[in-house]
Amino acid sequence: MKQTAEHQRLHSDQLAQWRRWGCYLGDRAWGTIRESAPTSADPWATFPWEQAQQRVYRWTEDGIAGWCDIQQQICHAIAFWNEEDDRLKERFFGLSNQEGNHGEDVKEYYWYIEALPSGAYYRMRYLYPQVAFPYERLRQENKLRSQSEPEFCLIDALPQTFREQRFFDITIEYTKPAPDVMLCRISAVNRGPDPASLHIVPKLWLPCNPEIAQARINQHADQAIVLQHPNLEEYRWWLDDAATVYFNDYQSNTHALYDQAKPASAKDAIQRMIVYGKPDLLNSERHGTQASAHYQRMLEPGETWSITLGFGPSSAANPLAHADECFLQRQAEADEFYRSISHSSQQSDLQLVQRAAFAGLNWNKLAYRFEVEEWLATGTGEHSEAEDHPDKEWGHLRANDLVSIPDRWEFPILATWDLDVQIVTLGLVDPAFAKAQALLLLNERYQHPNGAIPATEGAWANPHPPIHGWAIWQIYHLCDQDDAFLEAAYPSLKRHFSWWLREHRQADGLFTGCFMGMDNISLLDRQKLPKGYRLVQADATGWLAQYTLMLLKMAIVLGNDADACDFLDEFLAIRKALNTLWDSKDRFFYDALVDEKDRYTSLKVRSLVGLVPLLATTVIDLTSLSEVPKVAAHLKKLNQADDQSEQLLLTAVGQHWKPLINALFDEAEFLSPYGIRSVSLVHAEYPAQLTLEQEQYELSYEPGEAPDRMFGGNSNWRGPIWLPLNQLLLEAVHNLQSGVQQQAWHSNEFANLTEARNSLIQRLVGIFVVNEQGQRPYLGNQALFQQESIWHEHPWFHEYFHAETGKGLGASHQHGWTASIAAIIHCAGLWQVELNSSSTA
Prior knowledge:
By secondary structure, the protein is α+β, with helices and mostly antiparallel strands. Helices cover 30% and strands 19% of the residues. The protein contains 26 helices and 32 strands. The strands form 10 sheets. It has a 9-stranded antiparallel sheet. Helix 12 (416-426) packs antiparallel against helix 13 (431-440). The longest helix has 22 residues, at 483-504. The protein is globular, with a radius of gyration of 27 Å.
């Protein structure tokens, strides 16, 4: 075991205490499914952004750089005011799905730049404009733009402001001197050419809970703020003498929201006081369920201003006296920890990208609370209102846990196949948490009694790619090969696999799943099929083939010979069925529509759908089968072609792997300068077309934003680069090159599979690192971003990337998907791939 201070925390008996408090508060709670009414067709409209400053939440909280305990009983976040805005900056602003011309999108500039997995240290950075924030202009300009136009961003609204750096460069840090003591430091630099006033308003509050009316926050004689909660010990919030402290009750302003009687105190009291000078909703008795510390200062150009706060049990000593030493120590420990897990051959730019990816994943641990049965009764106290709700079969789901989520602003929700991608990368730095997350979804509070695993908030039953088995195997394989972890997961995985066989396997042995996560990748909406047709899917069948291989490998490790034989038989049956979808002329797998007379119509789109079967590729070590003699005999029969080999390659695509690899590594098809395209370049010139029941369907190669509003229009699978699928394809290619002779494949561009694999890794890394022109491709053609060093210091992790330019698209803080670049960089080190951090190809 590595012996850094952080490794010691991660392996200590106190790890649960270290994790009890952390930056577990999301950036957005308004507009989420769980804060809407079950009968609402539009969650964004049910709880819009305008109401967030006056209306309390039911299930969660939000704020800038927010922290809380795992149960979210006590919350803390930072607000700002520049004396130009008409409101406090209490949360990052963004557009709802209907307001953005490419769907929902946060319209602020910030980065999550550091985090230790134990929660002992966090750091983020935010650029807060010194001019009035253009809320309404961002809305109106994006509303006027079409799907074919780029989104209107903050830098488009305030070009001069950012050129002249008229913003406050704010760094927010948290560190823990001890597991239950938190220090917060907010440092602001005036980057502009003129003096500018800044207000910093840290807030501490108790979320609204009618059952705990006696919880209060009070002013103590020694200037500390005392928090008393019936479920917790007494805590203190230590402030310095410069703060003016205000108290209010954290409840909805029903007068402003619904024109009801004015409450004595409300959630927006602090905004009314600081921005408008109105103390009418404050508690003059100096107690309440929210306390706000108000700091104000005029900053000269280039001046830095820092304030430090402390929080902990009343029994603990005031930590402010030793704050400087603690911050320095935790920063040094973070340096030491991340150095210990990076390969020595990595260049500094690669280390920067990898470390930022890990930071984002650790910031994406969210206190997630949601009880479906209680939510369905919202508004009536009965279930009749939501009687026909699609989630009615998921009433058992009761979440009150720390959960890895895709994005703190855009997707602050549980999403299973996102989580599976996340925990594989997280396992490299926090294996205990990755294992706990994997097992959490198999807990009876989550997994359905019928074996299904919840998909995503608001659509729990909507099948996502079943990669939970892959995630568990990857965590096992890349981390510490913990057999007890496999044993804990294995029975529930079998139940989930059986559910897939029972519910989604067709009579022809092929699988359907409809949506399957890749949004608009199909010619038609997979959830709205023409009447009289069923869909058989190359990707659904490929995912199940991969799942079968993962379970086969687990059964071998656990010495379960009977199960291993069953899974091998299932795999061979799926492989045989999959051939039905192989087009021998095009040499590719396609989905097919099947009519009532069992006639197949191929949906001839050359896309990731047809490459997913390649993911069901693995290598079996035939020397490790002593505990499973029956399956060993079966596997050796499959290996008759080369009975001297100690390695057996199993792939669902059989001998079709060569034409698939040809397409994969053909720059005229899938291989772009920045990775594997989601749809072949062939469809740029030759769109896929289909006429069915007098309806016309067409799909063209679209390398950038979504061309239409299918699935909300906020993502596009018709061309762009998606990192998780590239990660999975890399693994498949690596397994292939491990299981065949090097001379088994070559192309005009590549001498062998190893060379092709290494080139793909380099192209993916090339999205993020500085290229020969001194640019980072993901920043696109925005000149200021490419020219000014401040924008190069920390990477963003966009949801997906333009296939021809590498520009980041979609959500800009999608660590849930795109932090997989950290795992790719890690594997490059394991595979001894030499990466050039100043080139894209």
